[in-house]
Specification:
By secondary structure, the protein is mainly alpha-helical. The protein contains 8 helices and 2 strands. The chain folds into 2 domains: 71 residues, Multidrug-efflux Transporter Regulator, Chain: A, Domain 2 (Orthogonal Bundle); 66 residues, no CATH class.
């Protein structure tokens, strides 16, 4: 088994040199040994471990999640590894759904905005500030209809915001 220094380890694992001590500080990696001068030495096992860490990060796992996966892998607890991966997948699906709701809300904002009004009448600014959109209408009309339903294009926008949970 070849023993190598930090530079060779980082190169073989496809990482920057600074990443290796970072992983050590976070409890994700330990050197194989140290030579008399104090330099760390690493084996092929650490290369595999660093590649594992890099791929887990690419899949969105946190430092804590990666430590958990490493511990489970060492313990050969495949059932738990699968459960952690499924939990991560569920979280990714929830984030995608939230991003799609945000995209819909922003699209509705952009569609409803004529892009040439003065700042005080800007529907985007007013919506983000939580203020109602109003056309100058009679008091009766305002009383009978919520403000967001008076401005053309606003009903769609307000419904989208309510549905997405963007407004409070």
């Amino acid at each position: 088994m070849a023993s190598r220094g930090i530079r060779a380890l980082a190169k073989r694992a496809g990482l920057r040199i600074e990443t290796v001590p970072y992983c050590e500080r976070n409890g994700q990696l330990a050197p194989e040994s140290r030579i008399e001068s104090g330099y760390r030495r690493y084996s092929d096992a650490q290369i595999i471990q660093l590649r594992f860490i890099r791929r887990a990060q690419a899949l969105g796992f946190s430092l804590k999640g990666i430590r958990e996966l490493l511990a489970l892998s060492e313990a050969s607890n495949v059932t738990r590894v699968k459960r952690v991966a499924q939990e991560k997948l569920t979280g990714v699906g929830q984030r995608i759904a939230a991003l799609e709701r945000m995209r819909d809300a922003l699209g509705a904002l952009a569609t409803a905005c004529p892009g040439h009004c003065n700042t005080a009448d800007c529907s985007i600014r007013r919506a983000l500030a939580g203020k109602a959109h109003r056309r100058r209408e009679s008091r009766r009309t305002r009383r009978d209809h919520p403000p967001c339903q008076i401005v053309a294009g606003a009903p769609t926008f307000c419904r989208v915001l309510r549905r997405t949970g963007v407004t409070g």
